[in-house]
């Protein structure tokens, strides 16, 4: 609505959707400065009715479902059709019915009372060849401007007995069977997909559990070879678990630990070099045997199985092994007189490693 009081539509109006429009108009008085004066306002209801124009074409009054016997004779009336119009129809409205083309099986007779008869033009019909016929019908009115529409009538050919009773359930049964078959197929496909998904999830979980609890056979064999050849202990692999030994000790499988003596170990005492200059290989063997016995009878300490690797250290080097286990040769074949030439700082070493017996050392 404008300030002058004219009402204009803001969008396209359709009488078939809403014939009346009720609005309220507010009128205000303005002062000299064209400002609204409070308390000087009036509200007026306005009722707008839309007038009709002929903008809708006529159509079938009902969803027709005509049926005819396959042995019907020519001229037999199949059904009577009528039309309606969404526009306001005056009392003198006229609907005209016609076919889009001359059909070889049916004809249309206009009754001139806004109805028409569909009749058989040539009979009988061959139901095995064609069970349904589509008949396009043109319907027009006498409005201004005139409107025309095309509506299709589906005619079903049925079997009839001697009394004239029709049997048209063949197509319906076929349709019902088809729907049931499709539903069964869909259910089977859905069931197969669900079982496949469950199987995939179960296999993934089972594979994950096996990867945690088990190891590859080749990996275990490779670790055994490493233990046998290199004598690797618990530090050679991340799979070593000390809890296995502890659990065995708690179950009493291992022998109880031998009581420790309060007396100091004889290997902690001062070891003197024998007068004949030998290195005491037998005492070293006794020490290894004692350590081995202590390790076998003590479940708290780690295995003592790494001593044998000393015998292989430096086997491929020029200097050979640096281990003291193989140093059983005598020191008499080594000349330490060159220590006397190094000055007073090495005098004590020269006296210790001299060939002749040394007297009391002066510190």
Automatic annotation (TrEMBL):
<protein>
    <recommendedName>
        <fullName>Cadherin-5</fullName>
    </recommendedName>
</protein>
<dbReference type="InterPro" id="IPR000233">
    <property type="entry name" value="Cadherin_Y-type_LIR"/>
</dbReference>
<keyword id="KW-0677">Repeat</keyword>
<keyword id="KW-0479">Metal-binding</keyword>
<feature type="coiled-coil region">
    <location>
        <begin position="203"/>
        <end position="230"/>
    </location>
</feature>
<feature type="domain" description="Cadherin">
    <location>
        <begin position="3"/>
        <end position="60"/>
    </location>
</feature>
<dbReference type="GO" id="GO:0007043">
    <property type="term" value="P:cell-cell junction assembly"/>
</dbReference>
<dbReference type="GO" id="GO:0016342">
    <property type="term" value="C:catenin complex"/>
</dbReference>
<dbReference type="GO" id="GO:0045296">
    <property type="term" value="F:cadherin binding"/>
</dbReference>
<comment type="function">
    <text>Cadherins are calcium-dependent cell adhesion proteins.</text>
</comment>
<keyword id="KW-0812">Transmembrane</keyword>
<dbReference type="InterPro" id="IPR002126">
    <property type="entry name" value="Cadherin-like_dom"/>
</dbReference>
<keyword id="KW-0165">Cleavage on pair of basic residues</keyword>
<dbReference type="Pfam" id="PF00028">
    <property type="entry name" value="Cadherin"/>
</dbReference>
<dbReference type="InterPro" id="IPR027397">
    <property type="entry name" value="Catenin-bd_sf"/>
</dbReference>
<dbReference type="InterPro" id="IPR020894">
    <property type="entry name" value="Cadherin_CS"/>
</dbReference>
<dbReference type="GO" id="GO:0034332">
    <property type="term" value="P:adherens junction organization"/>
</dbReference>
<keyword id="KW-0106">Calcium</keyword>
<dbReference type="InterPro" id="IPR015919">
    <property type="entry name" value="Cadherin-like_sf"/>
</dbReference>
<dbReference type="GO" id="GO:0007156">
    <property type="term" value="P:homophilic cell adhesion via plasma membrane adhesion molecules"/>
</dbReference>
<feature type="transmembrane region" description="Helical">
    <location>
        <begin position="181"/>
        <end position="202"/>
    </location>
</feature>
<keyword id="KW-0732">Signal</keyword>
<dbReference type="GO" id="GO:0008013">
    <property type="term" value="F:beta-catenin binding"/>
</dbReference>
<dbReference type="GO" id="GO:0005923">
    <property type="term" value="C:bicellular tight junction"/>
</dbReference>
<dbReference type="GO" id="GO:0000902">
    <property type="term" value="P:cell morphogenesis"/>
</dbReference>
<keyword id="KW-0472">Membrane</keyword>
<dbReference type="GO" id="GO:0005912">
    <property type="term" value="C:adherens junction"/>
</dbReference>
<keyword id="KW-1003">Cell membrane</keyword>
<keyword id="KW-1133">Transmembrane helix</keyword>
<dbReference type="GO" id="GO:0044331">
    <property type="term" value="P:cell-cell adhesion mediated by cadherin"/>
</dbReference>
<keyword id="KW-0130">Cell adhesion</keyword>
<dbReference type="GO" id="GO:0005509">
    <property type="term" value="F:calcium ion binding"/>
</dbReference>
<dbReference type="GO" id="GO:0016477">
    <property type="term" value="P:cell migration"/>
</dbReference>
<keyword id="KW-0325">Glycoprotein</keyword>
<keyword id="KW-0965">Cell junction</keyword>
<dbReference type="InterPro" id="IPR039808">
    <property type="entry name" value="Cadherin"/>
</dbReference>
<dbReference type="Pfam" id="PF01049">
    <property type="entry name" value="CADH_Y-type_LIR"/>
</dbReference>
<feature type="domain" description="Cadherin">
    <location>
        <begin position="60"/>
        <end position="167"/>
    </location>
</feature>
<keyword id="KW-0175">Coiled coil</keyword>
<dbReference type="GO" id="GO:0016339">
    <property type="term" value="P:calcium-dependent cell-cell adhesion via plasma membrane cell adhesion molecules"/>
</dbReference>
<dbReference type="GO" id="GO:0019903">
    <property type="term" value="F:protein phosphatase binding"/>
</dbReference>
